[in-house]
Amino acid sequence: MGSDKQADSHGSPGSVPVLRTERLLLTLPVIEAADIHLRFAEENRTHLAPWEPPYPADYFTLGFWRERLRKNLIEHDREVSTRFSIFWKNNPHGPVLGNCNFNNFVWGCFHCATLGYRIDHRVQGQGVMTEALRAAIKYMFEERGFHRIQANYRPTNERSAEVLRRLGFTVEGYARDYLFIDGAWRDHILTSLTNTKMSGRPPRLG
User: Fold this and answer.
1) Distances 198 to 19, 143, 168 between C-alpha atoms, Å
2) Residue 202 placed within a domain
3) In what order do the strands lie in the sheet with 112-119?
4) Nearby residues of 61 by Cβ (< 8 Å), 6 or more positions away
5) Over 80: is that where the pLDDT of 12 sits?
6) CA 105, 106, 111, 117 torsion-angle sign
7) Domain total for the chain?
8) Which terminus of the chain is more solvent-facing, meaning fewer CB atoms within 10 Å of its CB: N or C?
9) Does 113 fall in a domain?
């Protein structure tokens, strides 16, 4: 996996990360990629419904995805979130294979981000998300300086649990009625992964 911060067809010069693995490319796409993100949402609506919160009323519109991609770039620049879209490396203009999003950034004595991810139903079971997350976590630890990444999943989501186990996440707890998903408040299993290479005083205590 390599990290390339030069100008790319998916991002602006000098600011947007482009991560490459053996098969994949991860980046924050430009606003003009809204159409392929809308297609991903439409084609995975049933597949993702049991695992995601209720969508905004305009979620399945081109306008929503234009605004979402615009906000992604702004939030990354302001160090609020980093929301990667995943593509085949040999087809970087689509289709979207999935997303891995890091948000809820907290610095100070915590240096923590929260991870969420989703994948197209047609590539599920091919190791795509594990490969993507290895690259994304490496970037968040080594280049962004995070000490901890948290990820939570519903107890019935065995695929998600297996991905996190492969990546070394540790189960830390069980939260009842944690999030409103698929029409009800759902329990979640709480996990985390810490950056073992970070020791001593964190770089951004404020």
Assistant:
1) 22, 12, 16
2) no
3) 2-4, 18-20, 24-27, 82-88, 98-106, 112-119, 148-153, 184-194, 170-181
4) 38
5) no
6) negative
7) 1
8) C
9) yes
Backbone dihedral angles phi then psi of residue 90, each to the nearest 5 degrees: -85, 5
Question: What residue type is 76 in one-letter code?
Answer: H
pTM for this one?
A: 0.90
Contact 203, 152 (CB under 8 A): no
pLDDT in tens, 15-36: 799 999 999 999 999 999 999 9
- 204: in domain: no
Tokens of 131: 């490969």
| 37 close to 29: Cβ distance less than 8 angstroms | yes
At position 110, the amino acid (one-letter code) is F
Q: How many CB atoms lie within 10 A of CB 13?
A: 9
